[in-house]
Amino acid sequence: MANRTMSHFTKKRKLDKRVQDNLYFDSYSDVTIHEEMIADTVRTSTYRTGILRNSNSIQGKVVLDVGAGTGVLSIFCAQAGARKVYAVEASSIADQAVKIVKHNKMEDIIEVIKGSLETIDLPEQVDVIVSEWMGYALLHESMLNSVLFARDKWLKPGGLILPSKAELYIAPINDLVVEDRLSFWNTVKDQYGVDMSCMSDFAKKCIMNNDITVNLVTVEDVLSHPCKFAELDLYLVTAEQLKSVSGSFKCECFGSSPVNALCVWFTVTFPGGEEKPLVLSTSPFKPETHWKQAVLYLDDPVDVRQDTTVVGDVSMYPSEASSRHVCIHVDYTIGEVKKHSKTFSIPDGYSGEAQQ
């Protein structure tokens, strides 16, 4: 997934695009990120199956792999019968991709091109674009803009994009770990004879802050059926539309519980070729991926009962400080409680997983 090791820069100022890009591409030059992505079997196996299922559209055709990383998707495309694959990668991992391609005796088919998609030149138009561009909460440091640039400049009319669709979901949750952390300060007196209950407000401010927290959410924490609030058709979506991806949601709670957060996740869909479409899901109801889920903590927990509604609007947009960072703004109403608004972002020093 689109990774992020942005710890080099913590100052609250707008980074110029070249600096942003250098930081982003540098984060892909270490083995850890690629190890994590390849080891994510849900991610890598779904891409492999999605590519092989479309082998009828790939055989004898020209493929562009946007953000090729180690080149694994390019090799899958060669295995599916591609005549030529252009594997474009801006970071220094491209040097390793060259070795991997040679090691697999694919150098006659796969050409690794080191450079950013927006600056390189290809000798021909392509029939297929493949990319694993997704970031945390789908859009954090994602490469989707590069995929759209490639689509508009290099894809033949009627060409294939893998995956071809992305969807965003939201649901209210009760994070039990946070509940325990908030109540911890009330337990200190019994254990040590010192009353620290006055720490509770401070703890709440620290924990239930404006950060997008990337965490694994368990099924038991989810308090309603998920609600889809946005869908991106990769054949049609424009870079302009990515400046604000938004939608409404309405969830009905399963039973009595405090709601202390909202949880956001995504799916991407591969056309099925001869078979039904294939979905790669980062839902808490599905097997774990390295993207986990994006957790948005409310300022205050709200108690809900069976059928209490959680309604609102979500907007996702690039941060002013860095266009690769996503912000999420939520207006929400839980039951009879008055409407609240809160804006979230990934913390500056956040270092986590990656994408190719």
UniProtKB/TrEMBL annotation:
It comes from Esox lucius (Northern pike). The keyword Mitochondrion does not apply. It comes from the Eukaryota. This is Protein arginine N-methyltransferase 6. One of its GO terms (molecular function) is histone H3R2 methyltransferase activity. CDD domains: AdoMet_MTases. Transmembrane segments: none annotated. PANTHER family: PROTEIN ARGININE N-METHYLTRANSFERASE, PROTEIN ARGININE N-METHYLTRANSFERASE 6. Keywords: Methyltransferase, S-adenosyl-L-methionine, Transferase. InterPro entries: Arg_MeTrfase, PRMT_dom, SAM-dependent_MTases_sf. Residues 165-334 form the Protein arginine N-methyltransferase domain. GO terms for cellular component: nucleus. It is an enzyme of class 2 (transferase). One of its GO terms (biological process) is DNA repair. Its EC number is 2.1.1.319. The gene is PRMT6.
